[in-house]
């Protein structure tokens, strides 16, 4: 049996499949690993309100949300970082200039969305339109902005995300360069529907910084941390952890720098990783 580990697990494409279902094998492996003395943290780009109750009820020891900007252990907030007001305002101006209509800002109190993102929810092809999440969606156009203030000064959010239409006038690399004074841009999870989509992360705050900060707060050496993910937005935590695992369905070439490559999520990928790591 290996010594106690602190394990960080991405949700989409790692813990849960494209239908937001967690394989039974993954659920069993997580419970067994915890019984063996290991602590398991969700580490996701989603905000806490955007995580299904069915996933939270699996009993993880903690949650890192908003791509590393917030961490919770039960009702205790270990840390929370907010997007600076000027950064939100700069991004909104950029969205208007380049006709990017589908975007959201996520934080502890919910998701603030554009009219374009509302249409995405209403098209019926996403689980986010379900009643479970309805109370957490807020229309940006409905936000009251006091005279003399800006939207950025009103919103309390920890990350942004967007995706463009089929023929954008800017590429992902253009947005990454143009937004770099305010944000670190990583690929989002909308590759199947948009040629240019990304997550706007606070500069210096990501899943990697969260791995280091949570480990320090809980008294773990970084060598005793493990990160498991499947996409570009997991890169920072995979590189920060003592041991990195790429899912068999990994994208954007992350498997090239990971220590271990497990099987596909549809082939018991998480459970097989736990066996390889000696967690179960």
Automatic annotation (TrEMBL):
GO CC list: cytosol
The keyword Iron-sulfur belongs to this UniProt entry's keyword annotation: no
Lineage top rank: taxon: Bacteria
Record flagged with keyword Hydrolase: yes
Membrane-spanning intervals of the chain: none
GO molecular function: magnesium ion binding; phosphatase activity
Alphabetical keyword list: Hydrolase
InterPro entries named among the record's database cross-references: Cof, HAD-like_sf, HAD-SF_hydro_IIB, HAD_sf
Protein name: Hydrolase
Organism, scientific name: Bifidobacterium biavatii DSM 23969
